[in-house]
Design a protein that fits this description.
The protein has 177 residues and is mainly α. It has 2 domains: 10-18 and 97-175, no CATH class; 36-85, no CATH class. It has 7 helices and 3 strands; from the N terminus they run E-H-H-H-H-E-H-E-H-H. It has a 3-stranded parallel β-sheet, with helices on both faces. The radius of gyration is 18 Å and the shape is globular.
């Protein structure tokens, strides 16, 4: 990486993999990258009179936390859109890093099947996702993969204690080096 002397450890939560679009395309899952030209339309929809129409998933969040999150939707939807547009470039840059040495690295991954797909298809995609996350954990000789079968992609919302514990574990591993 660019900052080996400044990064002591890492926690990756449901992290994108540099080859995820290619690997999932091989399974028939095509990721449509939004056209950058529609950004003004996204802005308009997120700011003008659409309150309450485009709600994100609540998962297990308390109602007050969910309502606060939804209040930021006009801003966060633009960030999501920009992230989607530039994802191929970001993943290409990330793909240049193939070795993190022996820094403490914990990768948290969801293995919760999708209820929108058949059980077999859902398991096939979960297996592909876990394979990608396993590769990310392998970037460090001190990498660890933690799999959560009861949480979806928004693991940080559904199981925040797991994220906190991973951070604490990495901090402890760094201190004991």
């Amino acid at each position: 990486g660019e900052y080996p002397d400044e990064v002591a450890g890492m926690v990756l939560v449901e992290a994108s993999h540099p080859e995820q679009f290619t690997r999932f395309a091989e399974l028939g899952v095509v990721n449509e990258i939004p056209d950058a030209g529609i950004r003004p339309v996204i802005w308009m929809l997120s700011h003008l009179g659409s309150s309450g129409r485009f709600k994100g998933p609540r998962y297990s969040m308390p109602e007050d936390v969910y309502m606060t999150q939804q209040a930021y939707l006009p801003v966060s939807s633009m960030a999501w859109y920009d992230e989607s547009v530039y994802a191929p470039d970001t993943l290409e840059q990330a793909g240049r890093i193939d070795d993190l040495g022996d820094i403490p690295l914990i990768v948290l991954a969801s293995a919760k099947p999708s209820s929108a797909l058949s059980a077999d298809r859902s398991q096939e995609l979960v297996n592909a996702w876990i394979a990608l996350q396993t590769e990310l954990a392998g970037l460090s000789t001190n990498g660890e993969l933690r799999i959560f079968e009861d949480a979806g992609h928004y693991l940080h919302d559904e199981n925040p204690d797991a994220v906190i514990q991973a951070v604490l574990d990495v901090v402890e591993a760094v201190k004991s080096r």
